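Recall that a protein's primary structure is simply its ordered list of amino acids. Everything else, from secondary elements to tertiary packing, is in principle encoded there. The following example makes that idea concrete.
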Amino acid sequence: MRFLLCLGLALVSAAAAAQGFPNRPIKVVVGFPPGGSGDFTTRMIADELQKNLGASVVVENKPGAGGNIAAESVAKSPADGYTLLNAWHHSINLALYKNPGYTHKDFIPITKIATGPTIVVVNNDLPVKNLQELIAYAKANPAKLFVASAGFGSTPNISATLFQAAAGVQLTQVQFKGGGPAMQSVLAGDTQVAFSTAPTVMGMIRAGRLRALAVSMRKGSPSVPGIPGTEEAGLPGYESTFWFGLYVPAGTPRAIVMRLHEAAVKGLAKPEVREKIAIQGMDATPNASPEQFDAEIRAEGPTLERLIRESGAKVE
């Protein structure tokens, strides 16, 4: 009887908390510094959550360990809906790191935010004009081309690894603490190649500061016009896309999860928001429900784990 009473009180307390949500500022944590796609999608969705929830929503950049520091901090936060994580698929870091500090069970997925391809870019001084020339140059100079990556387990890291396998080339990856610092390295000529997320690099491409060779989708992307897909560029066996999505700590009341989902999806449905995302070379891809997002994550996990395993990548 005492157990049932305690359970009843807990349910009433959770319902009351959900009914009053939100009544204080919300924080969205991202594991990468300003200047990359993670930062862009975080600030964009934080703005929409703020508008639709009527509460202050702040962004906290917590870079380091390929996003693990941010993810672990959110996993250990109170399950009350006031601390969210914007991240990619957790299977990547769970496969890469011996002890990332969290598991899939530590989170409840809310919704995907946006999906996009990576863009293969090179420093303007590199004597290649297209993807086939890049492959030929890499084969003639094994391991001598330096690729700027945003950290182990990041989208650029995965995309570069898949490219090496598809093209049969050896590249030397140099890890940075995010897409922004990686791009500065390519601009300076310290590295020559990058497999960058579109929001990180589109402005530099438009300004002529970097040369774009291909997008990592077979048919290209309408959100990234004028840049060939891998099929047109001569490497049809290569494809690599990425996404960012919102999570909350496990145990967050269902009513709060649904409130956050509703607010995020409402924002992502706005034409002006979708256009803002498209300008960054991505597509808004909200899920119909948290359960749908969770099902997509579960379906995608084994493939990502296999790719990491076959690449031989490991971070101790």
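The chain has two domains: 24-115+242-311, 117-241. The radius of gyration is 20 Å.
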